[in-house]
Amino acid sequence: MIPLRIKIQNLGAIPQADIDLTSVGLCSLVGPNGAGKSTALTWAPLFALYGETKNGCSVDDLVRRGTTEMAVEFDFEHHGDTYKVLRTRSTKGRGKSTLELQKQAGDIWVSESGASIAETQEKINRLLGLDANTMVSSSMILQGKSGEFTAKSKGERKAILAQILQLDQYGDLQEKARAKAAVLKAEIDKVNNQIEVLNGRLTGMEETEADYQAAKVELDILAAAVAIDEIELQKADAELARVNARVEQIDKLFAEADTIRADVIRKTQDRDGYLKRIESAKKILDQESEITARVAEHEQVKESITVLKTKQQRYGQVLSELSKAKTDMLEVDAAVAKVASQILSVKTLLTNTETLKTAAAEYDLLADKLTKLDQLHSQYVELGRQKAETNAKLLVAKNELTSKQNKLKMQIENCAVAATMLQDCECVDIEKANCKFLANAKQASADQVQFQADLDALKSDDVDMYADELLLMDEQIQTLGYSPEEHSKSRTESMRLKPLADQYAQLSGKTELLVTLSETEKGHWERKSSLEAKVAELQAEHDSLLKELSGLSAMQDKLQRLEIWVNLQQQIPAAREILNTTQQLADRLGTEITAGTTKADELTEEYLSTVSGVKDEQKTAQERSEELRRGVTLKRGQENALHAKIGALETKIADMQMAGEERKRLVAELEPQTKKLVRWQTLVKAFGKDGIPALIIENAVPELERIANEILGQMSAGKHHLRFETQRELKSREGVAEALDIIVGDWSGERPYETFSGGEQLRIDLAIRFALSELLARRAGSKVEWVVIDEALSNQDAKHRQMVVDAIKNVADRFKKVIVITHDPELMDAFGQSIQFSIKEDNTREVMVA
């Protein structure tokens, strides 16, 4: 990867910067402290590519103070293509981040971003093949972190070296090979399982073929027997058909006789019907004169009934009117009784006028008294409530006073117990004693006096106040003069007098009411007299009609009995016609009945004379045919069973043959698959940590040592050299641990890197870091071809600083871009090219490439 351009907006202290690195090779980046040199050339690319932040701060902390929008745009070349990464951050609201990956295609930029920031980040990581940690360790020597690689633990160093050497791809290859091997193993296991199933299907093949041949022989024998039985069955069926034809002829004689007898029965029934009709016609004609008289009587009765039915309708109307009149009379009687009761009540009230007047006056006086008693009751209840509250407060105050008294008494008792030590001690001068126990006893004696004084003086103003309030309330209750008994008695008397007072108030209109009620009573009596006359009239008409209608039911019964004679009169013409025509038909049917009976008897006699012998012959022929048919059916069933058995055996044999062919095919298929599995399993081992990656590291470490020693020799004038150890023995158990120890030697011998001074460690760090970057650039498919060195020369003396500068120049042609960041103006022209980073008056950054 080769950086081409960095554009910055509001990153850290940089409000705006545009750095074009297209023409830069080896150069120094010079500018004052705080100008943002390190931010622009190290943290800006790291933030754009990986979202990394400086010194572990949050991404919002990178946004320049006083602004809300930050953006870094980083253009770079990678494997011949040009890419652009744009990462932004907004602190508005909840905050928002964006990430865009673009690829240049001619004059336009084409988006290569994913659907989310995480997807886009994954694409950038896959494109570069490096994470942020590896990029920093191999291509950036940050300010104060020149030992970014050497400061890692021994295990981490080897992991970083493995990633620089792109050994992680072998992990992917191992997983792919393992997946391929697993798929092949599953396929082979599947084929082996299929072969096992096929072996089961091939078991017993010889026995199956023997059963098949035996079944075919048995079938041939059975087929011959069936053919013989079928010939015999055909003969028996022919004989049965002949006998059945003879039986059918005989049965026709019997059927013909039955048909003739049925016809005789039908004709007999017809003749009997004709004779009955003739007899009925004679009876009707014999009663012709009586029928005529009865019909005349029927007409007379019918007319009488018509007249009575008219009167019957009037009877219903009279009955309804009579019922209504009686109902009206009952209503009038009820009204008369009601008015009489009201008149009596009014007269009674008018008689008790003085009594009611006295009761009304007493009620008014009592009402005034109750009003005053209600007011006194309210005051009485309120004083009772206040007295209860004051009583409760008095009880609380007394409890508090008692509690304080008990506490002081307990303190006095405790002090008395402690003070007894003064009486029991043997000190000569108690006042001068320094013993802690005696000092406590003296203090207790003094406290006892004070507590007793407090107890004697203890009193409660609240107790006295609440007691005085209770006495005052008792006096107020007595002053009220309220008596609950008198109040209750007055209320009861008021309730008794109220109805009487209400009656007195209503007396003013009672005289007029009495006149009105008297007139109403008179009207009711007049209506009652009118209704009584109407009821008498209707009752007389009712009784007359009831008497006339008493014979209607008997006349209706008689009319119904005479209806039969009307029907007989209507049948007289038909009876004469029957006598003229039906007798001839009956005579002809009698002749046909006699002839039919004779013919049927002759056919029956012929049937009975021949049927017995023919039926026996038919039974014998039928039994013979059925016996032969059962035998043929049984053998046919056996034949079908054998056919089914042979078919099943043929299917089984065919299935076994197919299974055998399938087994041969699977066995042939299995051999190359097994060879492939062995190859993939070999690749799994080869791609493992102990395989190709281990060989690559073992081969890369000598190359890394050689490059690092070349650069370190230039920086130290040949004083130092180094070597790497990739494994070390374990102390706790047998075996070795994977690591990358750095052993440095000088003229006094070899010792670990960690034991050298700071200046010496810096030169070693730079040598290893340059070696790592060059190693990465030399390997096929290299990812990073630029190095940034940030303030790495500040702690070197003049002699070694020039050595480091010369070493950087010597290794610069191994990278496309080498940028040395420094605030020392003396180093501005040390590398031929320089980038001057300055702060303008508006706080923007001016970048000049020279």
Tell me what you see in this structure.
- This protein has 850 residues and is an alpha/beta fold.
- The mean pLDDT is 81.
- The protein contains 17 helices and 15 strands.
- Helix 9 packs antiparallel against helix 12.
- Among the domains are: 192 residues, Rossmann fold (3-Layer(aba) Sandwich), CATH 3.40.50; 107 residues, Rossmann fold (3-Layer(aba) Sandwich); 155 residues, Helix Hairpins, CATH 1.10.287.
- Helices cover 71% and strands 12% of the residues.
- Heterodimer of SbcC and SbcD.
- Belongs to the SMC family. SbcC subfamily.
- One of its GO terms (biological process) is double-strand break repair.
- This is Nuclease SbcCD subunit C.
- Fill in the CATH topology of the domain at 1-129 and 788-850: Rossmann fold
In percent, how much strand structure appears in the residues? 5-15%
| Number of E strands | 15
Instruction: Give the class-level CATH name of the domain at 1-129 and 788-850.
Output: Alpha Beta
**Average pLDDT taken over every residue:** 81
Number of helices: 17
Cα(first) to Cα(last) distance is 23 Å
Q: What would you report as the Rg, rounded to the nearest angstrom?
A: 70 Å
**Basic shape:** flat
Helix content: over 70%
Largest beta sheet: what is the strand line-up? 2-1-4-5-6-7
GO biological process, one term: double-strand break repair
Coiled coil: 174-253, 528-555
Subunit structure: Heterodimer of SbcC and SbcD.
Family: Belongs to the SMC family. SbcC subfamily.
